[in-house]
Write the structure tokens for this entry.
Amino acid sequence: MTYSKHSSRNPEEVEVRLREAATRHKFGILHVHDLRQTLNSKGIELGSECRVYDVCNPQAASKALHTEMRVSTVLPCRISVFSENQGCTIATVRPTSLLEATGLDGVAALAEEVEREILAIIDEAA
């Protein structure tokens, strides 16, 4: 299941706010995938801005990995920002849904905590 929030801000403004919110919530942005740029470099026109941010809380990731190493298959968390409807949409797959899809045990409570933080980051960035 996904969570999304629309913003009247442009993607560049949302990126600044996203970085600030992530820091406040003790998350770091590990990498930004600029899908529009990547596709354009392959000769494919996307049109819309679309960036995917790999975000991580190192303490939560360490705790999860020490509990169940296979949780690495759904790390890091991803937040997408794409232009839409005279602004942009900020979206993510809920960490609890990702974990549920893996069938792994022992980290559900941690996934709920991470999800609360990710949704708060999105809400603040919007």
